[in-house]
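The aim of this short unit is practical: by the end, you should be able to scan a pair of folded records and say something sensible about each. We start with the first protein, listed as its amino acid sequence and then its structure tokens.
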Amino acid sequence: MFELAVEGKPVRVKVLRTTAGEGAGTPGTVLDTRLTIACGEGAVRIVQLQRAGRQAISAEEFLRGLPLMPGTRLA
């Protein structure tokens, strides 16, 4: 689970499905435009997620509505 600011308000997002990702960086940092996130060792690519009070969606659908640029840190 992580939290984002949407229109200045915090929004919780639950990660439902991931796959192994490529890359490295500071844990919690978005590494690419496919929602690959750096971990302590390596990275994971988020495949499916769910915003609080909403249906589960694919990472691609999520990013169409709320793009996260590489370098963004997730809390």
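Turning to the second protein, read its sequence before its tokens, just as you did above.
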Amino acid sequence: MPHARAANSGNSRKAKPSRRGKPGPRYSVGLPAAIATEVERYAETVDASMSKAIASLVRLGLENQANRKQEFFRRLKENLANDDPKNQERMVDEFRALILGR
């Protein structure tokens, strides 16, 4: 037995969810003058508001941190596979640089 179709009120398109949705949590941040100037320049370069520029830069920073973490574990696995005591001190320094960004 065929299923009955729901009555359509003349609108054949499905309602699309709003792209904007609810905004996420809001935070106030204080930036040193030099950093604020750099963010302002970045915002102008990408034609975005300061808020969107800060959000973008934070996202990029978090992605960079995740990439450094992945690189750390990749190199750690390589080092463990190639157990060469001569390279241990050098690898410790490189890992420190990858993790701490120094």
